[in-house]
């Protein structure tokens, strides 16, 4: 490297990644943010950003490539980092076009395309629910005849539980498929596995997982998103068989899908019928819905911050070293609220380390050296929040945050 500062170009279609931007600036980088016009007035950490550039949207591939290529006439771009999952593909296309180091389009496909990640995982011997592409009619009929209902129809390139349909009979499946028109090939069919859902949040450096935290959702995200429930997750007991098995499976998924460095949020389900862990999906990003804050409350590791340190270390040719970690426990609870600004002052246990400040939302993070104490408080608070604040609304068909 020369004496010039490392230049990091960040892409984000949503307001997120503020701590990533701040850490890049603390590391002495030149930080450029490419975002969308509708977020021009959003509360970005502007003191950590050297220049902000705006586009109508970041999904028009040719427009974005032309725009960033124009930027590259005067900026020496060292790294391109997408802060949101929906920007992973355009970031990889930019890296390929400008020959900037980082994950290219083939590998990114494993982290965006639910069909590609399942096929690659199955090829590597990782257990996944039975699935089928929504392509050849005979193959779809064979799947419906041989795999017991219910099934889920999933968009291949969406995130979270957005756009997922749970279906119970073949006619219902075919009606839904036919309603998709030409978009049918962008979906997959999968056996619905009943069970407990987990997520492992990890950091990767030089193809090795250097940090991982195993967590369990209190209710499956699909049920929360489509049923209007409370979102809650918590750290698993660190010496439990579940935590050890999940971390082992997470390492196998990383190896199969090929990420070299960065952050990962990977989900698994443990089937009620057979007790086995199945890989559901992964994303080359930090977890959403304030999972970053929960992991930090339990371990002291801020995933946004460490992801930034990983990117900068690689750009400089330096080694990355994970800071010291704690092994406490944390739990997260988030809900829509009937009140515009819910008053949670009656929730006064000392284990509360974070409270959400967002219109028509209520949320808290609890932390303790004891997993039993976190579980006890989460159970109590979920009941109280349902009574005091909880509201629900129909699931959105598109990403909104």
Brief summary:
The protein is an alpha+beta fold and 401 residues long.
Write the layout of secondary structure elements.
Elements lengths: L6 E6 L5 H9 L3 E7 L14 E5 L5 H11 L7 E4 L5 H11 L6 H8 L1 H10 L7 E3 L3 H10 L4 E5 L9 E3 L2 H11 L6 E5 L3 E11 L2 E10 L3 H7 L3 E5 L5 H17 L4 E10 L5 E7 L7 H9 L3 H14 L12 E9 L14 E4 L5 E8 L2 H18 L1 E2 L10
Parallel strand pairs: 1-2, 1-4, 2-3
Antiparallel strand pairs: 5-8, 6-7, 6-8, 9-10, 9-12, 10-11, 11-14, 12-13, 14-16, 14-17, 15-16
Helix pairs in contact: 1-11, 2-3, 3-4, 4-5
Characterise this structure.
- The longest helix has 18 residues, at 371-388.
- This protein has 401 residues and is an alpha+beta fold.
- Helix 3 packs antiparallel against helix 4 (105-112).
- The protein has helices at 18-26, 61-71, 88-98, 105-112, 114-123, 137-146, 170-180, 221-227, 241-257, 291-299, 303-316, 371-388, and strands at residues 7-12, 30-36, 51-55, 79-82, 131-133, 151-155, 165-167, 187-191, 195-205, 208-217, 231-235, 262-271, 277-283, 329-337, 352-355, 361-368, 390-391.
- The relative contact order is 0.11.
- The strands form three sheets. Strands 9, 10, 11, 12, 13, 14, 15, 16 and 17 form a nine-stranded antiparallel beta sheet that branches.
- The mean pLDDT is 94.
Distance linking N and C termini? 37 Å
pLDDT < 50 runs, ≥5 residues: none
| Quaternary organization | single chain
Count of extended strands: 17
- Overall geometry: globular
Radius of gyration: 21 Å
**Sheet with the most strands?**
9 strands, antiparallel
């Amino acid at each position: 490297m020369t004496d010039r500062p490392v230049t990091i170009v960040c892409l984000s279609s949503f307001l997120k990644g503020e701590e990533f931007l701040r850490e890049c600036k603390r590391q002495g980088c030149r930080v450029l943010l490419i975002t969308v016009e509708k977020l021009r007035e959003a509360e970005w950490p502007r003191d950590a950003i050297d220049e902000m550039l705006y586009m109508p949207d970041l999904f028009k591939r040719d427009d974005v490539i032309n725009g960033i290529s124009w930027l590259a006439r005067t900026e020496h771009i060292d790294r391109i980092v997408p802060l949101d999952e929906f920007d992973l593909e355009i970031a990889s296309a930019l890296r390929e076009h400008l020959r900037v180091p980082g994950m290219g389009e083939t590998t990114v496909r494993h982290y965006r395309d639910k069909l590609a990640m399942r096929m690659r995982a199955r090829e590597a011997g990782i257990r996944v629910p039975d699935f089928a592409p929504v392509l050849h009619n005979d193959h779809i009929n064979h799947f419906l005849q041989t795999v017991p209902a219910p099934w889920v129809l999933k968009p291949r390139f969406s995130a979270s539980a957005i756009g997922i349909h749970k279906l119970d009979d073949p006619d219902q499946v075919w009606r839904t498929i036919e309603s998709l028109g030409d978009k049918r090939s962008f979906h997959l069919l999968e056996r619905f596995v009943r069970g407990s859902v987990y997520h492992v949040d990890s950091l990767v450096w030089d193809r090795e997982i250097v940090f991982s935290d195993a967590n369990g959702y209190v209710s499956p995200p699909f049920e929360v998103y489509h049923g209007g429930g409370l979102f809650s997750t918590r750290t698993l007991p660190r010496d439990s068989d579940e935590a050890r098995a999940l971390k082992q499976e997470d390492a196998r998924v990383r190896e199969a899908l090929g990420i070299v460095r960065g952050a990962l949020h990977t989900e698994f389900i443990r089937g009620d019928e057979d007790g086995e862990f199945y890989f559901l999906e992964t994303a080359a990003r930090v977890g959403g819905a304030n999972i970053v804050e929960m992991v930090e409350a339990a371990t002291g590791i801020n995933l946004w911050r460490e992801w930034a340190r990983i990117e900068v270390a690689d750009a400089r040719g330096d080694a990355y070293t994970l800071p010291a970690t704690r092994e406490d426990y944390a739990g997260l609870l988030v809900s829509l609220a009937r009140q515009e600004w819910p008053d949670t002052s009656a929730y006064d246990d000392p284990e509360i380390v974070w409270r959400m400040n967002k219109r028509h939302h209520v949320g808290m993070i609890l932390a303790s050296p004891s997993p039993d104490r976190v579980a006890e408080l989460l159970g109590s608070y979920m009941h109280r929040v349902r009574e005091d604040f909880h509201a629900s609304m129909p699931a959105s068909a598109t990403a909104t945050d």
